[in-house]
Amino acid sequence: MTSGAAMNSAGPAADEASLTDHLRHWAEHRPQQRAFSHVAFPDGASGALHRTLGWRALDARAAAVAARLATVASPGDRAALVLPQGLDYVAGFLGCLYAGVIAVPLFGPELPGHEGRLAAVLADCEPACLLADSTATPAIRDFVRDRRLPDVPVIPVDQLPVRGHGRGPNDDGNGPDSSPEPSLEPSAGSRPGRSPEARPRPDDVAYLQYTSGSTRTPAGVMISHANVVANARQALAAFVADPRTSTTVGWLPLFHDMGLVLSIAAPVVGGFPSVLMDPGDFLRDPARWLRLLGSYEGTVSAAPNFAYDYCVARTAPEDIDELRLDRVRVLINGSEPVRAGTAERFHKAFAPAGLDPTAHCPAYGLAEATVFATASPLDEPLSAVACRADALAEGRIEVTTADDGPARRAVLVSCGTPVGQELRIVGADGGALPAGHVGEIQLRGPNIGLGYWKHAGLTADTFGLGAGEDWLRTGDLGALHEGRLLVTGRLKDVLVVDGRNHYPQDIEETVQSVVPLVRRDRLAAFGVTRSDAVGEELVVVAEHRRDADPSADDLRVAEHAVRAAVSARHGLCLGALLLVPPGSVPRTSSGKVSRAATRKRFLDAGFGPR
Predict the structure, then answer these.
(1) Angle 577-578-581 from CA coordinates, rounded to 5°
(2) Mean pLDDT of 227-232
(3) Which of 322, 459, 507, 536 has the fewest CB atoms within 10 Å, measured from its CB?
(4) How far apart are CA 112 and CA 498, in angstroms?
(5) Using CB atoms within 10 A of its CB, is residue 196 exposed (0-12), middle (13-18) or buried (19+)?
C-alpha cells in the first residue's frame, strides 16, 4: 500500500478462465454438489419451498439456453433477461455467456413503477430476444406491443428441453463430492450452437449492467468476461475466508450489480453454494432472510442500510429467539453512505441470536467497476470517524475533539481498502490529493468495465479514455484517512451554499431523526435555485409513515423542527419541507431514492403547488 494519494492492493493471480469455464469445471468435478437453491414463500403455504440444482444440472440448463439462443441470435447480439428471481434467471444468464450472446440482466414488467425504465433499456440495448418464463410470456408480449418496441422472440427458459443430462438421485446437491479436481484451464470446448472458434475472448462483452438511474438516465456498462471473473475473485478475497465452508444467501435483485456478482459470479468462480430468495419475500417478512442466514455455515450476504433497519423494526422478539445467527460470517453493507447507527442498532437487536459484532462489513463499489471496489477487513469491528462538520464542509477530514458538540460532528464509516485494484482521491484540477482531503474517488484495475453501451462521449469522460489515462471517474466524493476510504457523498448531489459543501444524506439523516412522522430512508434533500436567482436553497421531500395521517398542525410542527435542526447542525436555511404520502418519492429499480427524479418532480409541481 502506498501512502497519501493512492493505494494498491495485490489481488489473486490473473486467471484467463471465463465464468463458464468455471461452471464447466465444477460440473465435471463436483457434479452432484449443491450449487444454486431458490427459496420461495407461496401465499397460503405452510412453509418455504426449496428448489435446488447441482453443478451438473445447472450446466445442462445453461447449455439448453445456449442451444436455443443459437437459433435466434449470433455472438455479440443482446438477450434481455426479463425473468423473475430464481434458478431460471441463473441458467439464462450463464446460457447467454455460453452462447457468446451479451446478456442484459433486467426485470419483468410486473415490477411496479419501473415500466418506463424497462422500456427505455430495451430500446437502448436492442435485444435479439427476451428470456422469460412461461407464466409471464403473454404479459411480456403485451408490454412489447403496447410500448411499440421491436417484436423479437420471447423464449420461456423454464420450458426448454434439457438433453443428455438426466437428473440423478443426488442432483439436488445433497450427494457426495469425492471427485478429484485438476487445475482449471480455459477450455476451447463448445456448447450446443457454438463452435470452438466462437469462444468469447476475455475482453469481449459478457453483459450490460444498466445503472440504477439514481443520478442520471440509466446507461449500460459493458462488463467483459475478464471483468466479471476479476471482480468475483476480488469479492472472494474480501469476503470469503474459505469457499469450502461458505454459502451466499441473497435477496438483492439479480439485475442489480451487487446481486449479480455476489449471488451468481462469486459462487460460480469459487465453487460454493448460493441461496436465492425474492426481494418481495424479504419485504413482506424480513425474518425469512434472517432464518435463511442461520440455516447454513459460513453465510455471506449483503443489504443496504434500509434493510438492516427494516429487520430491526419488523422482527418480533419471539422470532429473534428462534434465530441462529452465530453461523453468519459476513454481512456486507455497500450503501452510500454506510451508517454507523444502522450497524449498531442491527447488532444490538440480534446479538441475542448469536450475531458476531464483526460480521457487519462496510464496502464501497459501483456498476462501472463491475461492483466491488473496497472493503473493510474481515473480523474487525466497524470503524467510524467523528469529523468536524465545518471542516468537512470545506473539504477536509479533521477528527473532533472533546469540545465539539454533536451539532458540530459528522460521523463517517470506513469502507476499508481496495481489493485487487488501485484507488486515488482527485481534486477539481485533476491532481491527486493527499490523505485527509475530500475529492473525487477514482479507480483502476482489471474489474473496471469497458465503457457505456452506445455512449462514446460519456465513456471517454468517465473511464478516462479520452485523456490518455485509464482511471475511472466514479462521481463519488471521499477521502483517505489512516489508509482507509471514507465516502462522503455523490459529486452531483452536493449542495453548495455560500461556498460550503453540504451532503444531502447528512441533511436527510437530520430530518428523519427529528421528525417521527418521516419514513426512514424515504426522503430526498436537494437544492433549487432561489427565487431571486442568487444561489440555492434547500428543499426536503419526505414520505410520512403509512400509519400516519398528518394534519396541518402536524406539518407546521414538523417544519419548525426541521428548520431549527438544519440551521443548528448544518448552518442552512430550509426553503421548503414537503411531507408526501408513502410511495411518492421516486426510487430506482434497486430501491435507492432518486434525488434527481425527486428534484425534477418538485420543479414540475408533481407534488402539488409549490
Answers:
(1) 150
(2) 97
(3) 322
(4) 40
(5) exposed
